Amino acid sequence: MDLIYYALIAGAIGIAFAVYTVIGLMKKDRGNQDVREISELIEKGALAFLVREYKYLAAFVVIVAIVLGVLIEPRGLVAVAYLIGTMCSVAAGFIGMKIGTKSNCRTVAGVQKSLNEGLRVAFSSGAVMGLMVVSLALIGLSVIYVIWGGYNEGVNDAGVKTSDITSILVGFGFGASSIALFARVGGGIYTKAADVGSDLVGKVEAGIPEDDPRNPGVIADNVGDNVGDIAGMGADLFESYAGAIIATMTVAIGAGIAFDGDLAMLPFIIAGVGILCSIAGTFFVRVGEQLKIEALLAALRRGVYAASFFVAVFAALAIYLMDIDPVTISDKYVEGLDIWLSIIAGLIAGVLIGVSIEYYTADIYKPTQRVAEASETGTGTLIIKGFSTGMMSTVIPVLLVVAAVLIAYELAGLYGVAITAVGMLSTLGITLATDAYGPVADNAGGIAEQAGLPPEIREKTDALDSLGNTTAATGKGFAIGSAALTALGLTAAFGQNIINEMEDEGVNETFSMSLMDPQVVMGVLIGAMMVCLFSALTMDAVGKAAMGVVNEVRRQWREIPGLLEGKEGVKPDYNTCVDMSTKAALRSMMLPGILAVVIPITVGLVPFLGPEALGGLLIGAIGTGFVLAVTMANAGGSWDNAKKWIEQGNLGGKGSDSHKAAVNGDTVGDPFKDTSGPSLNILIKLMSMISLLFVPVFVSVM
Amino acid sequence: MDLIYYALIAGAIGIAFAVYTVIGLMKKDRGNQDVREISELIEKGALAFLVREYKYLAAFVVIVAIVLGVLIEPRGLVAVAYLIGTMCSVAAGFIGMKIGTKSNCRTVAGVQKSLNEGLRVAFSSGAVMGLMVVSLALIGLSVIYVIWGGYNEGVNDAGVKTSDITSILVGFGFGASSIALFARVGGGIYTKAADVGSDLVGKVEAGIPEDDPRNPGVIADNVGDNVGDIAGMGADLFESYAGAIIATMTVAIGAGIAFDGDLAMLPFIIAGVGILCSIAGTFFVRVGEQLKIEALLAALRRGVYAASFFVAVFAALAIYLMDIDPVTISDKYVEGLDIWLSIIAGLIAGVLIGVSIEYYTADIYKPTQRVAEASETGTGTLIIKGFSTGMMSTVIPVLLVVAAVLIAYELAGLYGVAITAVGMLSTLGITLATDAYGPVADNAGGIAEQAGLPPEIREKTDALDSLGNTTAATGKGFAIGSAALTALGLTAAFGQNIINEMEDEGVNETFSMSLMDPQVVMGVLIGAMMVCLFSALTMDAVGKAAMGVVNEVRRQWREIPGLLEGKEGVKPDYNTCVDMSTKAALRSMMLPGILAVVIPITVGLVPFLGPEALGGLLIGAIGTGFVLAVTMANAGGSWDNAKKWIEQGNLGGKGSDSHKAAVNGDTVGDPFKDTSGPSLNILIKLMSMISLLFVPVFVSVM
Question: Which of A586, B343, B441, B516 has the highest CB neighbour count under 10 A?
Answer without folding.
Answer: B441
